[in-house]
Amino acid sequence: MITYDQLFIGGQWTAPASPGRIEVRSPHDGSLVGHAAEATTADVDRAVAAARTAFEKGPWPRMTPEQRQEVVARFDELHLARATEIAQLITAENGSPYWFTSMLQIAVSGQTQGYLQGAREMAWEERRPATGGGETVVRHEPVGVVAAVIPWNAPHQSALAKLIPALLAGCTVVLKPSPETALDGLLLGEIFAEAGFPEGVVSIVPGGREIGAHLVSHPDVDKIAFTGSTGAGRAIAGAAAESFKRITLELGGKSAAIVLEDADLDAVMTGLKYSSFGNNAEACIAHTRILAPRSRYEEVVAAVAALAESLTVGDPSDPETFIGPMVRADQAERIRSYIQLGIKEGARLVTGGLDVPEGLEGGHYVQPSVFADVDNSMRIAREEIFGPVLVVIPFDDEDEALRIANDSPYGLGGAVWTADREHGLEIARRVRTGTFQVNGAALDMQAPFGGFKASGLGREFGGAGLRHYTELKAIAI
Ligand code: NAD
């Protein structure tokens, strides 16, 4: 049992304004994981005030980029040293399988290192000859007070994708974690405190949507960095427009994996295991539409179904488990309602279904499910399900495959599988998504990450991500 009865406000552990607390229960068996202090709007106001003061008067924005990099590098070391403990906690809170959380907590350090590299390479202040004579000084200045709002599915990865670049740029930050993962959110406070950030620079205020909405509409916030659903992203973009707050949005996806005629199906299935079903398929980037050539359609359908059936579903803390429970009962119910919808829409359910897997009735479990004979206009092919439900869609030729891949409101990720890697690259150039993988090549956590269309705005990771936390200033001298 883990208890955080204080919030982390302005770098200090502080009692919340009211005694409300968040109860975090295991999605596996309902047991109590811990309690966390719940932030109120008054706590958010205190956190933003601390961030504002630290930004206006504190040392952090005035330190050199190199001095800030040193503190961030110390944070990364301390964070990495606690990777196993944090992975276990996240698995207990949200049901992400341990194989995934343990891998991701290490990878997050690579993400931080990518930002550090971007900070070292950035020309923070450049002096150049001006066209009309004289000189211009071009500066990257911190954007100000940053509100970071994140979901529960990969909490430290998405929190640090925002906090690290914000801090390297000299911003001050208020993080609002989801209630489901409030404990690991507050644990971050321990590491920020130990790393030695000055007073006021970092605050962590877990709470629900209302707390998020209050934070992002706060007049003293200059920038919103959000990961979550496209619906919430739209609401946030609307609210931000009023005062021209800067925004970056990482939203939903419905990514397509295109299997070409010449693909090696064994390799495809090894890849889809991770890219389609990784993290319980509670992943924005999951490849949930499998596009298969009509000539090999039944072969692909059978292989995807066999893959789904081969996955071990169960206790997420067991390293042998591949798929754990969904985060909440209503989320599992929502996924089942999509399975029902697929049947109603006339798709063929090849494996999986509505029954809770045997012996796992005490948790929020769903069966990995695969639909065939799916038309891309069906809702199960268009809407983000955020759970282990795949659709297999046939195509006649590559042009049709590309048309289907691009016929989506989303544009986050995707893949092509082919014996000809260079041809795969040609296909990749024609897909309207922010990331793309040829033959399952791993995504680089230092390369720009983000979405086209309704999948988001702006990019995270590396130098490209860092720039979203700066304002450019040109000074003519
Ligand atoms: P959600 O949008 O319901 O909530 C995300 C966060 O935003 C939570 O902290 C929530 O409290 C807060 N929130 C919700 N409405 C808000 C509002 N109007 N104003 C301010 N804050 C608000 O999403 P979720 O169900 O927690 O997470 C799943 C979603 O996140 C999926 O759609 C998934 O695709 C997306 N996601 C995207 C990425 C990416 O990088 N593109 C990564 C992970 C998850």
Structure description:
The strands form six sheets. This protein has a seven-stranded mixed beta sheet, sandwiched between helices. The chain has a six-stranded mixed beta sheet with strand order 10-9-8-11-12-22, sandwiched between helices. Strands 1-5-4 form a three-stranded mixed beta sheet, with helices on one face. It folds into two domains: 2-251 and 455-476, Aldehyde Dehydrogenase, Chain A, domain 1 (3-Layer(aba) Sandwich), CATH 3.40.605.10; 255-444, Aldehyde Dehydrogenase, Chain A, domain 2, CATH 3.40.309. The mean pLDDT is 98. It is of the alpha/beta class and 477 residues long. Helix content is 40%, strand content 21%. The chain has 15 helices and 23 strands. Bound molecules: nicotinamide-adenine-dinucleotide (NAD). Nicotinamide-adenine-dinucleotide (NAD) binds next to helix 7 and helix 8.
CATH fold naming of the largest domain:
Aldehyde Dehydrogenase, Chain A, domain 1
- CATH domain class name of the largest domain: Alpha Beta
Oligomeric state of the chains? single chain
How would the global form be characterised? globular
Q: What would you call the structural class?
A: alpha/beta
Question: Could you give me the name of the CATH homologous superfamily of the largest domain?
Answer: Aldehyde Dehydrogenase, Chain A, domain 1
- Please estimate the helix content: 25-40%
The number of distinct helices, counting runs of at least 4 residues, comes to 15
What's the CATH architecture of the largest domain?
A: 3-Layer(aba) Sandwich
The N- to C-terminal Cα distance equals 60 Å
Instruction: Report the biggest beta sheet as strand number plus sense, adding barrel if it closes.
Output: 7 strands, mixed
Mean of the pLDDT scores? Answer: 98
Q: What percentage of the residues does DSSP assign to strands (E)? A: 15-25%
- Strand arrangement within the widest β-sheet reads 15-16-17-14-13-19-20
- Any low-confidence stretches, pLDDT <50, length ≥5? none
Radius of gyration based on Cα positions: 23 Å
Count all strands and give the number: 23
Ligands, deduplicated: nicotinamide-adenine-dinucleotide
How many domains? The number is 2
